[in-house]
Amino acid sequence: MSDAAGKFAARRAALLARLEPGSVVVLATAPESVRNGDSDYPYRHDSSFYYLTGFPEPESALAMVAASGGQPARAILFCREKNVDREIWDGLRYGPEAAQAEFGVDAAWPIALLDEKMAELLAGAPALYCRLARDKGLDGQLRRWFDTVRARGRTGITAPPALRDLAPLVDEMRVVKDAGEQAIMARAGQISAAAHRRAMRAARAGVFEYALEAELLYEFRRNGAQFPAYTPIVASGANSCILHYNSNDRQTRDGDLVLIDAGCELDGYASDITRTFPVNGRFTAPQRELYEIVLAAQAAAFDAIRPGNTFHAAHDAAVRVLAQGMLDTGLLNRDTAGSLDDVIANKAYTAFYMHGTSHWLGMDVHDTGAYRLTDHPDKPSRPLAEGMVLTVEPGIYVRPAPGVPEQYWNIGIRIEDDVVVAGGAPRVLTGDVPKSVDDIERLMAEES
């Protein structure tokens, strides 16, 4: 078995060890998706399926049986049969025989046999684990499998009496990244950082947002990233105050800030970077003032990311700096908003900062895993542990409004990096993009 196959086998074994003996697991990958006419979107596997198998093809499913009564655990891959004619049109298909050898499963069968084989595996099993109400295709097949097993009830064969949700178990496994995962994410961060530097160098007043997006996508792909991890946000001027803006079709103007939120996906793992910079290469005084507040908020959040500290400690630290900055600049009026503690208690800061500071990052850009201890009655924020990967992305967004100082109108700023929780300070994966005012202006002054 190859090292790669061994890694996936170890994950499957760790999952099965947590289940009741003899329990059955089934998990399908994502279906292909039609874009329009006879054109499909580029195929992207289901993250959890890939996490447990490494198998990249559509029309695939994984079944596993936990060890029981001296019988060892088993992993069975269902996939498309080898088809040389279709390979002429669509490319390589492993087929069951090669898939079993390459991906280290105990058996591999054609996907057409899924109904038949699952009915056999479920006979007498104490429980079936699947992602409840998430896999549309499997949801429709579950009843067929159970009906087939129940039809044999007179022979003493029983269907699983318990149907349990698989998703929380796999989701939690994915929260802590091993050294191999961290290495891929570090490389993804380097590629994305290079793309952001390229876009900064290409920026000029009058350039269209989509032209800067093109610089990002070029750098992603030429360095081996398979996809953008999400639709890039290239937001100039007032668009920078739209959190999920992605039309990317405005022509920039002299004096605009440009907020770029973009990251690549490499070998199934995402990166996520945001930088905000002046399109003409020089911050105005109001832009610089707000920018420095956001940068200080990010630094405060970094200081709060330590093993044992809670996930939400970084957000609380960032909010305290941002709220103080809003009071100092007059974005929030002290006479009406009150003290810093009042602003935080009343969440008055959400007029200009309305999102969280962090999210998990991994195979999905908003990766799996609970943010709170759901088995605790008070559901407190969960403690951080080494190997967790999260974003740190404070911001300030100022839309025109009565009582808001006009010099700050239409300024939207976000600064985002990806970090690994480590023994001391967090390890920043995306630090190759300048983010101090002086460093940004210096980079943008370089010849492109």
Automatic annotation (TrEMBL):
This is Xaa-Pro aminopeptidase. It catalyses: Release of any N-terminal amino acid, including proline, that is linked to proline, even from a dipeptide or tripeptide. Gene3D superfamilies: Creatinase/methionine aminopeptidase superfamily, Creatinase/prolidase N-terminal domain. GO terms for biological process: proteolysis. Its cofactor is Mn(2+). The gene is pepP. Belongs to the peptidase M24B family. Keywords: Aminopeptidase, Hydrolase, Manganese, Metal-binding, Metalloprotease, Protease. PROSITE patterns: PROLINE_PEPTIDASE. One of its GO terms (molecular function) is manganese ion binding. The keyword Hydrolase applies. GO terms for cellular component: cytosol. It comes from Pseudoduganella umbonata. InterPro entries: Aminopep_P_N (IPR007865), Creatin/AminoP/Spt16_N (IPR029149), Creatinase/aminopeptidase-like (IPR036005), Pept_M24 (IPR000994), Peptidase_M24B_aminopep-P_CS (IPR001131), X-Pro_dipept-like (IPR052433). Residues 3-139 form the Aminopeptidase P N-terminal domain. Its EC number is 3.4.11.9.
